[in-house]
UniProtKB/TrEMBL annotation:
Protein name as annotated: Cytochrome c oxidase subunit 3
Family: Belongs to the cytochrome c oxidase subunit 3 family.
Signal peptide: none
GO biological-process terms attached to the record: mitochondrial electron transport, cytochrome c to oxygen
Species assigned in the record: Vespa ducalis
Domain Heme-copper oxidase subunit III family profile: 4-261
Length: 261
């Protein structure tokens, strides 16, 4: 039966969810191998396989929405709601990390010297690389808004250029975060502070990398003229996600860097 009495399209059978699930399982196993045996080869292989699977899945979604016209107004409405719910779940995830931080910092236990940061922990200077990262992310929020406004006003070349600036800034942030980790005077094994610090900033860094991939896909789609003034929810969802990453970083900087200094 090809007839339907609803405004939604029935997606064809896809192998990508199953393949992605297997890749994620292998990736998690590779993390254990990395932690215990310091071997990263399986993690690199599973990461590449996971990215290739995601690209194939995204290709199918782009084909259904852009070329086949399957995404009706009701589907776009539900996509917006699903993105809002996804970002809301991410907000609660970071709230749990901040909750752990304040639970340990507002009443430090005797095991860490009743001090926060614990005794002998040399904290990062918040006015050094962390402040630079804050400026980079705030600037990236401005450039991506500029890109969105340019797309709405049919200035495609300006939209592509400012989106490229945003991607460059996000790569700069990731590079600065890498060097900060490399030169860190403490590790994830140094008390509860080290655990919370690297867990929170690490997860934020992963979100930045995911957002960067999201923006790169949008840039290639924009260069292929997949977006128009009225139909560009993929780009809009990337903007929402990027602003979420910006706002979370402001809390990370204020509480984990500045307040702990």
């Amino acid at each position: 039966m090809n007839k339907s009495n609803h405004p939604y399209h029935m997606v064809s059978i896809s192998p990508w969810p199953l393949i992605l699930s297997i890749n994620i399982m292998i990736f998690l196993i590779s993390m254990i191998k990395w932690f215990y045996f310091m071997k990263i080869n399986l993690m690199i292989l599973s990461s590449i396989s996971m990215l290739l699977t995601l690209f194939q899945w995204w290709r199918d979604v782009i084909r259904e929405s852009t070329f086949q016209g399957m995404h009706t107004s009701n589907i776009v409405k539900n996509l917006k709601m699903s993105m809002i719910l996804f970002i809301t779940s991410e907000i609660f995830f970071f709230i749990s990390l901040f909750w752990t931080y304040f639970h340990s910092s507002l009443s430090p236990s005797i095991e860490i010297g009743m001090l926060w940061p614990p005794k002998n922990i040399i904290m990062f200077n918040p006015y050094d690389i962390p402040l630079l990262n804050s400026i980079i992310l705030i600037t990236s929020g401005i450039t991506i808004t500029w890109s969105h406004n340019s797309l709405i006003n049919k200035k495609t070349n300006t939209a592509i250029l400012t989106l490229l600036y945003t991607i460059w800034l996000s790569c700069m942030f990731t590079m600065c975060q890498y060097f900060e980790y490399k030169w860190a005077p403490f590790t994830i094994a140094d008390s509860v502070f080290g655990s919370i610090f690297f867990l929170t900033t690490g997860f934020h860094g992963i979100h930045v990398i995911i957002g960067t991939i999201f923006l790169i896909i949008c840039m290639f789609r924009m260069m292929s003229y997949h977006f128009s003034k009225n139909h560009h929810f993929g780009f809009e969802a990337a903007i929402w996600y990027w602003h979420f990453v910006d706002i979370v970083w402001l809390f990370v900087y204020t509480w984990l860097y500045w307040w702990s200094f």
